[in-house]
Design brief:
heterodimer, A: 49 residues, mainly alpha, 73% helix, 0% strand, flat, B: 471 residues, alpha/beta, Rossmann fold, seven-stranded mixed beta sheet, five-stranded antiparallel beta sheet, 16 strands, globular, binds S-adenosylmethionine, transmembrane helix (chain A)
Chain lengths: 49, 471
């Protein structure tokens, strides 16, 4: 359902906008990275099994 | 109304967004929209922010053709006001690029507040009406989806912000960077330019280094995954607005004035006596008035003295000058006067903009854009013929090629005895240019047009000609 842009917006270019958007944005970026980390740990047992 | 199948020409520079396409029909500039783009347009045209931006001249005037032409493969067709002369960002001075960036951010900011965004962020979204920037890519607006960052940020960095950083922080002219790469400067390249203590300059730690690092680290992640992750992490419209505000603040700080260059003080230090200048101004004024031109091309315009005289009688004037610092000063002066009919451009006539992008036609070459009813070449020919070794017949071939059929070339010949010509000749071996003589010049002119007026300046070392070309 995500709507794709004709232009490759660049994954890193999207994330960095959170950081340059101010303090609230840094929190968003931190949350994104935290969730990535957590989901990696959660996935690991099943990945290996 | 139907679109006749004759005389329709697709604009080669508009294919990147398949949702809409610009084409030309005679003198009209049209834009065809597919179903989705047509829905975006209908929402946009009803929005106050868009009407306000258009009314203020910040966005190009646009209307929809109704009923929609049936023989065109589009869900809707728009007609845009015509931009008098299409230019490319590498032909702008640094203050022009900065004002283009600020306009883009203003337009985006107003859009975000109203629930819209732009799909891209390119310097090519902006054109000029004299010294006023205009946002032209009406096909770029779409509804904002909450929780999404700006898709155009990377393009904005590469084609607007990075060139401005290069100019302001490093003092390097940005034009060659943009001319060489249609997509602008990559973050990766910028990181190399801004190593060492330069990494701490305004805007560089985040928009260059962090940006580059994030790109490298996320190169395997798809943009749709990252969009979803950002939305889940709470990215908001306020954050998007904050990013745009931050960018605008940064760009406003990058107000770099290029140092004075060789040509900056020309009008004060040049060799003209007052009677010479008066005679030249009168001649130019009369020649332009006699032609009542749509477009004038002033080549080697310097501080724009003659471009301004031409603008008394012309619809618009393109003032071409090789020296970026001189163009920047001229642009600032015109901007402060609110001038909307004189467009200053940075361009070396001995190395004019070639075609660029896909097949070399996505960005048209200067030679394919420059055609004017009156061409001014004042105190210029000696720079090309002696300074750059271009054979005199070729100089005249180029000048007449710029002139529309029946239009006028107003050209000054600086005699070899003139102090300025002597100074240029002194840098070259004796006798290198035996044909640089007034009689040879006049013979060449006579072969290319009809000399309708001629005057020798009071100093006796310069002659002006008004030549009707091919008429
Ligand atoms: C002698 S001044 C003449 C200025 C003005 N046209 C006049 O008649 O007073 C020559 C100007 O032409 C510019 N010029 C010289 N060679 C050029 C080139 N190859 N392309 C564009 N401009 C050039 C110089 O930078 C300078 O500003």
């Amino acid at each position: 359902m995500t709507h794709l842009a004709y232009l490759d917006a660049g994954s890193g270019s999207l994330i960095v906008q959170a950081v340059v958007g101010g303090v609230a944005g840094v929190a968003v970026a931190a949350k994104l990275y935290w969730r990535r980390l957590v989901s990696r740990f959660r996935r690991q047992p099943t990945d290996q099994g | 109304m139907t679109v006749p199948d004759t005389g329709v020409r697709v604009e080669p520079g508009s294919f990147r967004d398949p949702g809409n396409r610009v084409f030309h029909r005679g003198d009209e500039v049209l834009r065809g929209l597919d179903e989705r783009s047509a829905r975006d347009w209908r929402a946009l045209s009803a929005a106050d922010f868009f009407r306000n931006l258009t009314a203020a001249g910040h966005v190009v005037g646009t209307e929809e053709l109704t009923p929609t032409p049936v023989d065109a493969p589009w869900a809707a067709v728009l007609r845009h006001d015509r931009i008098p002369f299409v230019s490319h960002p590498y032909e702008w001075s640094c203050a022009m690029l900065r004002d283009a960036a600020l306009l883009h951010l203003d337009v985006l900011g107003a859009a975000l507040d109203a629930g819209f965004t732009t799909k891209d962020g390119s310097a090519y979204n902006v054109q000029w009406r004299g010294a006023r920037p205009v946002f032209i890519d009406v096909g770029s607006f779409e509804a904002l989806r909450d929780g999404e960052p700006w898709a155009g940020y990377r393009q904005f960095c590469q084609t607007l912000l990075y060139p401005l950083l290069v100019q302001a922080h490093l003092g390097l002219d940005f034009q060659p960077f943009l001319r060489a790469r249609i997509d602008g400067i990559e973050p990766d390249q910028m990181r190399r330019l801004f190593a060492g203590t330069r990494r701490f300059r305004a805007g560089v730690p985040t928009h260059v280094h962090l940006h580059g690092a994030m790109q490298a680290r996320n190169s395997a992640a798809s943009t749709s995954d990252v969009r979803a992750q950002l939305r889940d992490a709470g990215f908001s419209r306020e954050l998007a607005r904050g990013t745009v505000r931050g960018l605008a603040k940064l760009v406003r700080r990058l107000d770099h004035r290029p140092g004075d260059s060789h040509w900056s003080d020309y009008q004060r230090t040049c060799a003209y006596s007052v009677p010479d200048r008066q005679a030249k101004e009168t001649f130019v004024d009369r020649a332009v008035a006699a032609t009542a031109p749509g477009t004038v091309l002033d080549l080697g315009a310097n501080d724009g003295r003659y471009a301004r005289i031409a603008a008394r009688h012309a619809a618009h004037v393109v003032a071409v000058e090789q020296d970026p610092a001189v163009v920047d000063a001229l642009y600032r002066a015109l901007r402060d006067e609110g001038e909307q009919r004189i467009l200053p451009l940075v361009l070396d006539l001995a190395d004019p903009s070639p075609g660029g992008g896909w097949r070399g036609v996505e960005r048209a070459a200067f030679a394919d854009r420059a055609r004017a009813d009156v061409v001014l070449a004042l105190a210029l020919v000696h720079h090309l013929a002696i300074g750059r070794n271009v054979p005199l017949p070729e100089v005249l071939d180029q000048l007449t090629a710029f002139t529309a059929t029946g239009g006028a070339l107003v050209v000054e010949f600086v005699h070899p005895e003139d102090p300025m010509a002597r100074r240029l000749l002194a840098n070259k071996p004796d006798g290198l240019f035996p044909d640089y003589r007034r009689d040879a010049f006049e013979a060449l002119l006579a072969r290319r047009g009809r000399v309708v007026a001629r005057t020798e300046l009071p100093s006796g070392t310069r002659t002006l000609y008004q030549v009707v070309v091919g008429g």
